[in-house]
Amino acid sequence: MSKQSGRGRVVGLPEWDRCAVMGVVNVTPDSFSDGGRWFDTTAAVKHGLQLVAEGADLVDVGGESTRPGATRVDEAEELRRVVPVVRGLASEGVVVSVDTMRATVAAQALAAGAALVNDVSGGLADPAMIPTVADAGAPFVVMHWRGFLDGGNVKGVYADVVGEVVDELRTRVDAVLAGGVAPDRIVVDPGLGFSKEADHDLTLLAHLDRLHALGHPLLVAASRKRFLGRVLAGPQGAPPPARERDAATAAVSALAARAGAWAVRVHEVRATADAVRVARAVEGAREETEAPGAGASGRARPAASPPGAGGTPDARTGSATPRAEGAR
Questions:
Q1: How many CB atoms lie within 10 A of CB 309?
Q2: How far is residue 246's CA from residue 279's CA, in Å, rounded to a whole number?
Q3: Per the residue annotation, which of 7, 18, 265, 270 is the catalytic one?
Q4: Which of 16, 168, 233, 276 is a plausible cystine mate for 257, CB 3.0–4.6 Å?
Q5: Quick one: average pLDDT of 87-112?
Q6: pTM of the entire structure?
Q7: DSSP secondary structure string, 253-321?
């Protein structure tokens, strides 16, 4: 992997040759983006399969809204919503992530075939989460989190948002490691929109290189979030509805991919999958033109003939060394 890249291998998951696209299935009636659309198990599984057909590499299944002010569902209801969908998608060969803050939900989802636990609290909401994930040997997403967003955006004050998020994530990662989760199974997430205003989110996106310094693959979850609405609205306008922010989401996804993100989490997959593919193609072209001995065309230059040698160069030196597929 390059020194700027966060696309390290996550043990227990496939290794993708580009920034992965994580599609979202919200099995909730109150998601900020698409609440109620996939509340039925059959509809949720069908939607997850459609996301894969559109280019998702893995699918994140959640049964509890984490929007500001959302009321928590009880454990039994979250299990009822999530586990059958996880089981249905996993049985079709889909790589499934479970989006939950409860250890019992994580454990049952893993037993049903989930491959990854995505906890927006990074293990803070449920003390049993870290030992549960450690015992299962599952990969774990550690998000920057400052508490439940009851009634609004709590503790969203920063003197240096990048430095503070990096420091707080490092502290959280250390706790997860101490709890027994292997370092090659940890993914970090800056928590865009969680206890952050629009300018905080934009600043974090502008400095993803600082998050790579944590030494773990990076998940960027910007899809349809408020800061995109603020950008699209301009200083005096009204933000467009969440479902009208997919082009902006694809733009952020391309930027995140270019900055070395391991994965992006999105609701509308096709546009982001295309954007990520283009970003990877541009990165591949850059790598080829910057390869040792490459000229402007991207092909390696033939070595100069040594003094006294004939004028015909060795034919083998006229072709570029191919870039290994999946180079990071």
A1: 10
A2: 17
A3: 265
A4: 276
A5: 98
A6: 0.82
A7: HHHHHHTT-SEEEESSHHHHHHHHHHHHHHHHHHHHHTSTTB-TTSSBPPPPPPTT--SS--GGGGSPP
pLDDT of 328 over the 50 cut: no
Mean pLDDT of 50-55: 97
Q: Which of 225, 226, 245, 258 is catalytic?
A: 225
Q: Give me the amino acid identity at 33.
A: S
Distance CA 53, CA 270 (A): 9
216-252 tens-digit pLDDT: 999 999 999 889 999 999 777 899 988 899 999 999 9
Q: Are 219 and 263 in contact (CB under 8 A)?
A: yes
Task: Give the dihedral sign, CA 227/231/235/239.
Answer: negative
User: What is the residue whose two structure tokens read 């502290």?
Assistant: 171
DSSP for residue 218 = B
Highest mean pLDDT range out of 58-62, 72-76, 149-153, 282-286? Answer: 58-62
CB neighbour burial string for 18-39, b if at least 16 within 10 angstroms, e if fewer: bbbbbbbbbbbeebbbbbebbb
Q: Give the CA diameter of the chain.
A: 83
Question: What is the layout of strands, in order, in the sheet containing 116-119?
Answer: 186-189, 140-143, 116-119, 96-99, 58-62, 20-26, 263-266, 219-220
| Residue 265 is among the residues annotated as catalytic for this protein | yes
Q: What is the DSSP letter of 65?
A: -
Q: With bands split at pLDDT 50, 70 and 90, how would you rate the model's confidence at 153?
A: low
- Check residue 154 and give its pLDDT: 59
- β-pair type (116-119, 58-62): unpaired
Flag whether pLDDT at 124 surpasses 90.
yes
- Name 97's Cβ contacts closer than 8 Å, sequence gap at least 6: 22, 58, 59, 60, 61, 114, 115, 116, 117, 118, 141
